[in-house]
Every structure is written in C-alpha cells, then in structure tokens.
Design a protein that fits this description.
The complex is a heterodimer of chains A (271) and B (310). With 271 residues, chain A is mainly β. Chain A has a single domain, classed as Pectate Lyase C-like (3 Solenoid). In chain A, 8% of the residues lie in helices and 30% in strands. Chain A is built from 3 helices and 17 strands. In chain A, the strands form 2 sheets. In chain A, strands 5-1-6-8-9-10-11-12-13-14-17-16-15 form a 13-stranded mixed beta sheet. Chain A is elongated and about 65 Å long. Chain B folds into 2 domains: 155 residues, Alpha-Beta Plaits, CATH 3.30.70; 139 residues, 2-Layer Sandwich (Alpha-Beta Plaits). Chain B is built from 6 helices and 18 strands. In chain B, the strands form 2 sheets. Chain B has a 16-stranded mixed beta sheet that branches. A two-stranded antiparallel sheet of chain B has the order 14-15. In chain B, strand 14 and strand 15 form a beta hairpin. The longest helix of chain B has 18 residues. The two termini of chain B are 12 Å apart. The chains are: A mainly beta (271), B alpha+beta (310). Chains A and B meet through helix 3 of A and strand 8, strand 9 and strand 10 of B.
C-alpha cells in the first residue's frame, strides 16, 4: 500500500464526478495507471490526468490526498469502505456519501449532501457544509445511518434530515429544519440553530451546547432526570473539544417530541 | 500430605487445590451513591455461593470511585461465574433484571470488553413496553428504560471470558473463634486483589463437600474427613485431636494466576496469625487431580523460602 497524491492542475469548467476514486481502487496501481482512470466531467469521460498530477510515496498506507480547491469535484469518498482520504482544500457535493468505513478529512468546506446516507467511518470537515448534510439521497427514505460526521464550521438547512443512526456534530451554527424527520441518532450543535428544530422527529437526541433553540409547541418538557444517559453522552461529546468541552459538568434541560410524529426524541439543552 | 512444611507453627500440607474451568463476566453497577449500588450488587450476587444449586457463583469484587465508572457515579464491580456461557447468560439476565433494574437509581455496564457477548440490557429493555430508547455512544449500545425514578440505563451486552473456579484453602484450628479469626483475615487479604471473588457467605464455607454420597440422589455430601465431630468414627479422618473447627475459603478468579495469587495472600494471612492464634494446619481440597485441570500446590504457591519440616 502507498500514499497517492493527486494535485489539482486547474479548476475544471464543469463538475467532475470522483466516485470510484478511493484508496482501495488505487492500491497497487502505478502513477501511470492512476492517470488513466476515467471520470466524468459534465457529459465527457476524461482520464484523471486531465485534472491532476499523480504522485505516489510510501508515507502512509492506504491514504489518498487531494490537493487544491476541489469544490467542483463531487462524490469524493463515495461508498468508501476503508482507508483514508484527505482533501487539502474544499470539496464538492456528496463528499463521504454512502461511506461505510474509513476516514475522510476535508480541510476546507464541503458542498451539498455531505455524508448523506453515510453508514460508517468518520467524515471530518474543517469548514462549513451546505444543505442536506447527513441526510438522505434525493428520493430515499433514510438519511445517515452510522458513523461519525464532524463539521467544525457551520451547516446549512435540513441538517440530518431523516437521519437514522450515528453521530453528527456541528461546532458552529446550523440552518433551518435541523434534524427534521429524524428517525434516531445523535446530533450535537455548538452554535445557534435556525427555525423548526426537530420538525417531525421520531426518536434520537439533539444536544445544544450553544444557544438554546426555539422549541416548537409539539415538544413537552421532560420531568424525569436522565443523568446517567447524559453523562455517557456528554463525556463522549466532550472528547471533541471546542463548544463541547466540559459538557458533562453542565446542567441540562430536556424537551421530548416531536409529538406530531413518534414523540420519543429529545432536545437536550446544556445550560 | 507426604511432605508437610511448618511456618510460624502452622503445618502447610503438601497438597493442592483442584479447580475447574468456568465462564465469567464482570458487571459494573453504579448508583446515585454507594449505598444503593451496594444494595443492588449485594442482591444480584445473593444466593450465588455454589453452581451446584445456585446456577452461578458471584461476589462483589471491589468498590469503584466516580472516576472509574462510565457514568461518573460511585459503583461496584461484580464478578459472576457459571459452568457454561449459556447458564451465565441466563443468570445475568435474571439477576440484573430482578436485582439491579429494580433497585433505585442504578445503572449497569459491562466490566469486560473482550469475549463473546451475552445479553445485559438487550432483553431487559422490553420492560419499557415500547418506551425504551436505544443510544449508541462511542460504538457501544445502551438501553434507556423508563422507570418510576427516571430511567434505568443498561449496556446492551457484556462479554464472557474463560475463568477458573474452585480454588480453595482449608484452615484447621483449635476452636471456633480461632478458625473464624483466621478465615476472616484470609478473606480480607484476598479481597484486596483484583479479578477474584469468594462466593460463600463472608467468603467462608463450613460445609466443605466431597464428591458423591451414600444416597444415590446426591452428587456431593459432607467432607467427613475434615469434620471434627466424626473424628474416630470415619475410616479416614484428616483431623488431629487438637483440631476442633475447620473452615474453607473458595476462590473463583478470571485466570489461574489470579486464583493462585489469592490463595497465596490468603495463606500468608493465615501464617501471620500462626499457631499462637490457634491455627494448626492449612490444607486444600482436591479430587485426586483427575477432575479439574488446575492444580494449586500450596508449597509451590508459597515458594521455596520459609518453613521447615516437622
């Protein structure tokens, strides 16, 4: 196994689909073979060499590094099952979508639908993500269903729509309809949430380490203490630092809902 | 008893304890305070002295501080041993369901990570009647079951590990006071070690048994060779005239080394009290070495130093 480095030559005119360009697919290939791998650019099919200069070294096993602004490159880490992808810049849409294992690290921001239908592994985005992160692919019934998504910047609307399992953290603010139609899973927000938090959520936990959200009237205040579950959750979230550091020492207020759906979800507001 | 050794006036028999493979798990029971954790742990490990009729052997391993438990509350580590993984799973579910779930403020977690998983909260969750909530945190699934004081949190599974059961020491003393004093000191010393429990009441058993009985229905019966009341009556007695009380400590541990270490410190505590404290002999129970694969030779455990031939 080797580390493959793909350095962007210039920003393409149209969007490029990078599905299939994973550490496992490139393992054992010589740079010349990697350069001949075909990807779509708009309606064209072009070799990778059209967009990247390819270099291989033995620095890290099973690692694929993209260098440059890849905000026009979609589906980076699509269906990734293992290995590590580093994007030293921004990524396009669908980054980490449908991944089931391994690690994707985006050092810039990401576009729409990041981590949608993600089932395992870890996706870390140092900047912001667009709408529908951790949600479902268009037309699909279930969103993110496993793994960990960490957004160190802000997230757009419909974050974790229909999410079913896994953990998704946003250090900054999130847009409207956070966790709408959430089936289950854990979401933690370090900043401020937009309107309609937990709209139609059935189960799952939303933790607010920053500003308290506006709670819809379809949620009820929880009278019972959930100190044990909170300690387990808060101690794990605190490992991520930032707004989540020290979470276990904070008192919480919980609201249960959304009663318009199953009603077994919880909004946990750290005071 | 071919080559006994004498240390501090106490005869250490040249014999061995014979122990058996078992399956075990460790549970961590936490609560709002140590009192309620202890209520739950004591209840869950009650009636668990011998696999012969209890289904398992269990005991409290040690107290855990808030910095040692998953939820930051005080707790206790409990070890449960059984003859098979299947029986262990049954005992864990019954005991946690009836003694921990029911006890105010408690939560229960797996205390062993490696090994085959058996249900902990996995089936108890149905007590929630549909209101139970699953939560996966750091890859571990927990169940949150609503109860009248809030919610009962239980890790979904605990792990089963291979273990060793039936390590033992026999303490032969001049009277009841001396025997109890020696046994209590030995148990106290053993309790300071990790990975072992002494499952009998107070860690001590007075009804040591032998294999078989004159009654066909019984698989075990009183160890007549060590009964002072049968001295002179039974064909072969291990009792000498000055011995009037014999007590036994049974030790179950996660590994052979753990059981051996506990027996060693137990013997050392006995020897420290010595003949002046009324202890005459230390021995061990075995079945001729044909039944159990683990043999704990008393002399080997004490090492080469110390002692003299009588």
């Amino acid at each position: 196994m080797t580390r493959v480095r793909l350095a962007l030559k210039q920003v393409p005119q149209l969007r490029v689909d990078l599905r299939g360009v994973t550490p496992a697919a490139l393992a054992g290939l010589a740079p010349a073979q990697i350069e001949r791998i075909l990807v779509t650019h708009g309606t064209q099919t072009l070799p990778l060499a059209e967009f990247f200069t390819v270099a291989c070294d033995d620095a890290t096993d099973g690692e694929l590094v993209f260098e440059g602004d890849l905000s026009r490159f979609d589906r980076i880490g699509w269906q990734l099952a293992g290995g590590r992808i580093v994007v030293a810049g921004s990524a396009g849409d669908y980054v980490g979508a449908c991944m089931s294992g391994g690690e994707v690290q985006v050092q810039g921001s990401a576009g729409l639908l990041a981590a949608c239908e993600m089932a395992g592994g870890t996706l870390t985005i140092a900047g912001d993500v667009g709408d529908h992160a951790a949600s479902s692919l268009p037309g699909s019934m279930d969103g993110m269903r496993g793994g960990t998504l960490i957004v160190r910047g802000r997230a757009g609307d419909r974050f974790a729509d229909r999410m079913r399992r896994g953990s998704a953290l946003v250090f900054g603010d999130v847009g409207d309809f956070l966790a709408s139609r959430l089936v289950a899973g854990t979401i933690a927000i370090g900043g401020r949430a937009g309107a309609h938090v937990g709209y139609g959520m059935r189960r799952g936990s939303l933790v607010f380490a920053g500003d308290a959200p506006r709670v819809a009237p379809t949620f009820v205040p929880a009278l019972a203490d959930a100190a044990v579950a909170w300690q387990l959750l808060a101690r794990d979230l605190a490992l991520h630092g930032g707004p989540f550091a020290g979470l276990a020492t904070r008192r919480v207020v919980r609201h249960l809902g959304d009663l318009s759906a199953d009603g077994r979800g919880e909004l946990i507001v750290a005071m | 008893m071919s080559d006994p050794r004498v240390i501090n006036g106490v005869v250490i028999d040249d014999t061995f304890a014979e122990a058996f493979p078992m399956k075990a798990t460790r549970l961590i029971v936490t609560a709002h305070n140590l009192t309620w954790a202890r209520h739950a742990a004591a209840s869950a490990t009650g009636f668990a002295t011998s696999v012969i009729a209890c289904g398992c052997e269990a005991g409290i391993e040690r107290e855990l501080g808030p910095d040692e438990t998953p939820d930051g509350r005080p707790g206790l580590a409990v070890l449960i041993f059984s003859m098979s993984g299947k029986e262990l799973a049954k005992q864990v579910e019954r005991r946690v369901g009836q003694c921990v779930l029911t006890c105010p403020t408690t939560a229960v977690f797996a205390g062993i990570k490696e090994g085959e998983a058996i249900a902990l909260g996995k089936n108890l969750r149905f007590f929630g009647d549909g209101w139970q909530i699953s939560k996966v945190i750091a890859g571990v699934r927990y169940w949150r079951v609503p109860v009248m004081d809030g919610e009962f949190v239980a890790q979904e599974t605990t792990a089963v590990t291979k273990a060793v059961g039936g390590g033992n020491l026999l303490m032969l003393a001049t009277d009841t006071d001396a025997a109890l004093n020696v046994a209590e000191a030995a148990v106290q010393a053993m309790k300071r070690l990790p990975n072992v429990v002494m499952p009998f009441p107070g860690g001590v058993v007075r009804s040591g048994s032998k294999v078989g009985s004159k009654y066909a229905a019984l698989s075990a019966s009183t160890n007549d060779a060590f009964c002072p009341g049968l001295y002179g009556l039974v064909a072969k007695s291990e009792i000498t005239p000055e011995v009037r009380c014999v007590l036994e400590i049974v030790i179950d541990g996660l590994t052979e080394a753990d059981v051996g270490a506990a027996m060693r410190v137990g013997m050392q505590a006995c020897i420290e009290i010595g003949a002046s404290g009324g202890l005459r002999r230390v021995s061990a129970g075995n079945y001729g070495g044909k039944l159990g694969p683990y043999h704990f030779h008393l002399h080997k455990l004490l090492g080469a130093d110390g002692g003299s031939k009588p």
